[in-house]
Structures are given as structure tokens and as C-alpha cells.
Amino acid sequence: MKRRNFIKKLGLTAAYLAMPGCAAFPQARAGRKTNFVFILIDDMGYKDPAFMGSSYHHTPRIDNLAAEGVVFTNAYANAPNCAPTRACLISGQYSPRHGIYTVGSPERGSANMRKLVPIPNKTNLDTAVVTLPQALKAAGYATACIGKWHLGDRKPYRPQDRGFDVTFERQQRSHFTADGRYLTDVLTDRAIDFIRTKKDVPFFLYLSHYAVHTPIQAKKDLIEKYESETPGRLHNNPKYAAMIDSVDQSVGRILDELDRLALAEDTVVFFFSDNGGYANVTSMKPLRGSKGMLYEGGIRVPLIIRCPRITNAPRKCNTPVIGIDFYPTILNIAGVPGPPAQILDGESILPLLKGRDKLDRKALFWHFPAYLEPYNEDQKPWRMTPASAVRAGPWKLIEFFEDSRIELYNLDDDIGEKVNLADANPERAAQLLRILRDWRKRTNAPVPTQRNSLYSPPPNGT
Length: 462
Hints:
Blueprint: H1 2-9, H2 14-18, E1 35-41, H3 60-68, E2 70-72, E3 75-76, H4 82-91, H5 95-98, H6 132-137, E4 142-147, E5 166-168, H7 183-197, E6 203-208, H8 220-227, H9 238-260, E7 267-273, H10 296-299, E8 303-306, E9 315-317, E10 321-322, H11 326-334, H12 350-353, E11 364-368, E12 387-392, E13 395-400, E14 405-410, H13 426-442
Helix pairs in contact: 7-9, 8-9
């Protein structure tokens, strides 16, 4: 009964339940389950790949992937920075359920500038959470986490404790290894080794690159390549472009290996970023903001899903989707029941992959009860203060907790979030605010209310 209720929650039909092995779509070979390769890029901005609009960055292999799959133009990370996005992806849950809201301390920046005491932040994903790899492993999948984990580095929180058979993380904060190899290449080598070793069994590969996160480091020949080219309208940093180029080559090598082993038809490939780009080296325009912000530039990211036996033709999908959707989607495709006692907040987007143009979901949510300091002059005095956000249809509302400020935008008309419509459309603002607060109540999302006794800003407020 628990299994059936979970499958019902994913929106599957009685016909699905009756299919042998609960296979969600025809398999390439009799008895073979679907493989999954999830490529997660760190800090890749919405406009960074060429297929999303960059005229400076060379991404032919990522572009080819986009030409063979579904490109989601309204894809969102669950948070504006790294750790919470990864926790949401691997748990299938919104941040208030697991308590990972930011990276490290929520008390970032100058203490005298913080009006509120932020909500305490967790840095380890609770062991009570059944992770996506654990759910797949229980169904016979081989699993690997190659690259960045960021959800706990000590037992029992390490990736090898949380459902991954094979793990590999970097040993130093650099994009070059101690013996001089480029880290993106090393991770790709390890990922290919895993695919080769597990080619005869179903597998889930989580290739979580450290690129294109700082430090901005790249291979000399690729830097020189971009130094000789004309800068683009949005992008002009040769080192950053070279990092993206290496990521593109990594994607190409993975796809080539799937082809070589005749696994491409059996394998669903995801390409996604954990948050918006780092504004000091890239641009998300026309989106507003960047990494660390709840404006679109901080949370809207590139997403491609290639699924040869589901999607008949390449296309674009404008329906909003979010990181928590991957857990139920992968289980849905694999025909694997989820943990019966665990709430999954996401929705399977398999209907979108099959050609449907919308989901029944009414809204997406973000909760960030923490502070982030600025990293350039344009972001002062804060990059982000405690806030929540909701998107319902084209409408997006942000509620800032320090001063109860409300910002309302119509993204269809104003993708750059330039015109706050809260005063001009108070009915719509009230409606979205009610939806947001109801969601916070349902998920027990903590809101900071305690005033910071150290708050004493300078006269100019900076």
C-alpha cells in the first residue's frame, strides 16, 4: 500500500502499475533498466552556454546535447548558492525540511549591518533523509558521486555513507591537482572509468564538477584561445571562457563514451547548474542579479534533459521546473518506488519530457533565512538578506524579512525584474504573499524575527 501511494503521488496511472517492472518507457534491450548521468556544473550562469545565448563561450558539445533533448527555459535551482541546492536535489525536498539554507554560517558579512539574527544553518544532510542514490541502490543500481558533494565530509554524512558505491572528491581548493592535471579532466576520467566498469548493470552517475566556481583557473592553451578572440556582448573573460570550454569537452567525452559502449539509447542525461553565475566574471543579462540572490540571475539556470526513448524530437519547454523535481522524475523513469515515509516536494516532469506543455503544480518556492555579503561594489550593502520567494505562473514575489518589503514582478513582461508592481497590483501581491506564507506554514519554514543587538550601521548605510 505504501508503494502504491507513493507511485500515486508521482502522478502515475494504473496502466503504469500494470507494466512489467513498472518500466516508464520502452527499454532499448529486453530486461535492461535505464541509466542516468547527471552532470551538475558549479556556478554556471543562465546565459553562459552558447545555446543559451553566449557569443563568446564555445560549447559545441553542450549545444549538441541541447539539440538532441529538451531545453528548459524556466529551470530553477532551489537556492541561490551551492549546498542547499545540492541538498534539495539529492533529497527531493525543499530547504525547510532538511535545514540546509546556505553555505556554512548564515551570519555572513558585518555583524553591525545585520538587522536580524538569522536562522541557524545545517551543513550536513540528516541521515534520516533517504537520498536519491539510496533509493536507486535499493533497486539494484550502481551509483557514483564523482566531484563535489558539499553535504557532509565526515562519517556518517559522506557520499559513501549516503548511497554512493563509488566516490571521488578533490584534495585541494584548486582546479589543478598536485601533479598538474586539470581537475575537470580528472573527474571526467573517473566518471568514464565508472561507466566502463558498470556498463552491464543499471547505473546512476552524479558527475558534480567543481568548475566553473572560483578560483578562476584554466588550461593555458584554452586561455590563449580566448585571448585571441573578440569579446562578446555579455562575456569577455578568457580564463572563465576556458573553464567553460573544459566543461564542454567533459560533456563531449561522456557522451562519446556512452556512444562507444552502445549505452546512449539506454541513458538519460541531465545537464544543470547549481545556481546563477559569479557576476565578477560573467553576466546573466537580461536577468537581474547573480549567484547568491533570489532575483532570476541567482536562481534561473541552464537545464537540458536528453532521453532518447521518451522524447521524440528536440524542443524547448517553457514550463517552470526546479531542482527537487529530479528525484521523483528519475524514480518515475526508472520504475523505482520512493521512500514511503519521506515527503517528496518535487513533481515528476516525465509528462513534460513526453510532450505535455504544463504541470498541475501551482507554484515554486524558495526560502533563504540567511545573509550573504557582497563581492563587488554593485551589490553593497548586501548581496542577500533573509527572504522568501514564490513563482506562480508569470508572477514572482519576494518577501524580505528585515523590513517586510514586498517586490512583485511579472516575468512574462519583465524578465529583468526592473518594475516592482506590488503597489500597482496590491491584489496580486496579497494573493502571492498568502500562497508563500501558507507554504512556509506547511513546511515549518522558520522565519527570523529576533532583532540583532549588534546592529549599528554607519550613517551612509554601507
